[in-house]
Amino acid sequence: MRRLLLFLAAWTGFAAVAPAQITPPTAPPALPAAPADWLLRELDNSPILRQHHAGLQLTDVASGEVLAAWHADKYFTPASTQKMLTLYAALRILPDSVPALRYVVRGDTLLFRGTADPTFLHGDVPSTRAYQLLRRWPGPVAYTETPMADAKLGPGWSWDDYPYYFQPERGPFPIYGHTVRFYYRRPGQSAVAVRPAWFKASTQKAPTGATSPDHVRRELEANRYTWFPTPRAWVDEVPFRTDHTLLLTLLRDTLKREVQPAPWRLRPGETARTYYGLNVDSLLRRCIRVSDNFLAEQTLLLCSAQLGHDTLSIARTMKHVRQQGWLRPLPDSVAWVDGSGLSRQNLTTPRNQVALLLELHKLVPEARLFDLLAAGGRQGTLKRAYRDPKGLWFWGKTGTLTNNHNLCGYLRTRSGRLLAVSFMNNNHLAETSVIRREMERVLTLVREQL
């Protein structure tokens, strides 16, 4: 009996600290009857979907009618489909152009600080406006670090993904996307091209006979890189470890001028101004179409800066979204801990994702919304799936982690109906390609029959 009492005490103590954000509502709404019974039978009888945790919801965008709900009230790890929440927050908060930096002119000196804009000399969405401002300023320039409440890596991220392009560190003034690019242009060459070139001094060729599954390896706690020759050419990206001193060094190196550190203390009568860069859709399009984790994380930090927070904080952006009631249309609570979906601590339901898709469709014109998304057979992570040479029929966002593959977006049926879709698969041991093909088979049936 004593052991039983101790066990119960320990169990109840654990339950008391369970995350509040994933507690379901007191009386969750019942799932509506779904007209597409044939689809539910198809899902139940699928040998591929049978063993793992899977769920789907289809809703008519025009009427709001739920056409199919299969485990749609169950919680899943969303992976990169979580970026649709980031997109929603950004469309609500950010202006038409990306806030590139904040600045004050003091005499002939330009004092500037970051807003978390990730596009400064970024390799894929480079913005040159802030760069040109700092390069051409006729007087001295001085940088001050914007405080950041968040850690450089997010909660629940896999530590051993540190050397891979999809998990750079977050920061208040990113440069080069916080990654180094290596170019091995022809087999047999004795050196690789490095961008930014400043890292070339800390890059070495692997010893003869050494092998690696990766083209380039970085030390865990240092910006020292080793590259491995192969029979084929390649381009690889590897994150670098960030700090205030390295940022100043890279700014001086690329601007070809002195950049001094300085405190951010506004004098009486001084007002900081915002300098704007890229059109915001250029940032969001790249973030969503190719599922860029770094851009997604920085986008939520950008939102924090736009809301006037002196300290950049992803948690404050999320809190603002909740306080504004923007998540109220979602039927279930959401565990939301990062902007990219890298964390397995994120949790949501298929019917939550569909509700979010309906809100996005109301928020911005359809043409603009679909342009931001990956498109079947056309662009982004859906380029090789959902093809039809006669026209597009699926726009959306994929999300993949080991043993998880999800999809949410908009499906245009043969009859012309537009459906909001969430199809989630967690804890599968099958190859992702097998899950992906089965999802496409099922959604092609939906396209033909609804």
Task: Count up the helices.
Answer: 11
Task: Kindly report how far apart the N and C termini lie.
Answer: 59 Å
Listing every helix as H and every strand as E from the N terminus to the C terminus, the arrangement reads: HHEEHEEHEEEEEEEHEEHHHHHEEEEH
Unreliable parts: 1-27
* CATH domain class of the largest domain: Alpha Beta
Give a topology summary:
Blueprint: H1 2-16, H2 37-44, E1 53-60, E2 66-70, H3 83-93, E3 97-106, E4 109-114, H4 129-136, E5 141-143, E6 179-184, E7 193-195, E8 203-205, E9 216-218, E10 225-227, E11 234-239, H5 244-255, E12 260-261, E13 273-279, H6 280-289, H7 293-306, H8 314-323, H9 350-363, H10 366-372, E14 374-375, E15 394-401, E16 404-412, E17 418-426, H11 432-449
Parallel strand pairs: 4-5, 5-12, 8-10
Antiparallel strand pairs: 1-2, 1-17, 3-4, 3-13, 6-7, 6-11, 9-10, 14-15, 15-16, 16-17
Helix pairs in contact: 3-7, 3-9, 6-7, 7-8
Protein name: Peptidase S13
Signal peptide: 1-20
GO molecular function, one term: serine-type carboxypeptidase activity
